[in-house]
Amino acid sequence: MRLIKRIFVILIVIVLALVGVSYLLPGKAEVSRSITIDAPAAAIFPYVNSMQETEKWSPWLSRDPETKLSYTGPDAGVGNTLSWSSENPQVGTGTQEIIESNPDQSVRTALDFGPMGTAVASFQLQSEGSGTQVTWGFVSELGMNPMSRWMGLMMDKWVGADYERGLENLKALVEGQG
Question: How many domains are contained in the chain?
């Protein structure tokens, strides 16, 4: 009985330590990737300023071709909204709405993954020689949930490769148009 009591106390101490340490972890998760595309920003902007156009280069849609997509609002710019639903947990269910659009410069979107939380994604377009550097970023506020804060440490590993693949797809698409 004494051994069980000791094991129980040790487990409680470990759980409390993990919870306590979680509040020392970052309160937000950030992911960012960049690529240089051999094209002017004006040639790239339409592909990041429309949820319909992102279908052409999205790194996630190839994971589940059965993903159900629906669009509302204008075809591009602020208010353009994508809703998706997939049984594949790597695709999931959610919405993404363009909340800010600066022609040939930047786009910000609000993401809502339902119970999985919310985030803001962005695209920054910056001239670089004869091309354009495209930076795709993601920020999610993790709140005070200890589990979310521990998961936030993994966000770059989970999302970074997808961002790289998406940017490569975008580069191939845009450069193939020229």
Answer: 1
**pLDDT 10s digits, 29-75:** 899 999 999 999 999 999 999 999 999 999 988 888 889 999 999 99
Both tokens assigned to 11: 């487990």
| Residues 6+ positions from 2 with CB-CB distance below 8 Å | none
Question: C-alpha distances in angstroms, 26 versus 30, 145, 147, 152?
Answer: 10, 12, 12, 8
Task: Determine the 3-state secondary structure of 24 from DSSP.
Answer: coil
Does the global pTM surpass 0.85?
A: no
CATH number of the domain to which 43 belongs: 3.30.530.20
* Residues 6 or more apart in contact with residue 109 via CB below 8 angstroms: 96, 97, 98, 99, 120, 121, 122
Is 21 among the domain residues? Answer: no
List, for residues 136-154, the tens digit of each pLDDT value.
999 988 877 887 777 777 7
User: Mapping DSSP to helix (H, G, I), strand (E, B) and coil, where does residue 113 land?
Assistant: coil
Both ends of the chain: CA-CA distance in Å? 75
Residue 79 φ then ψ, to 5°: 95, -15
100 found inside a domain: yes
Which structural domain, as residue segments, surrounds residue 40?
27-177
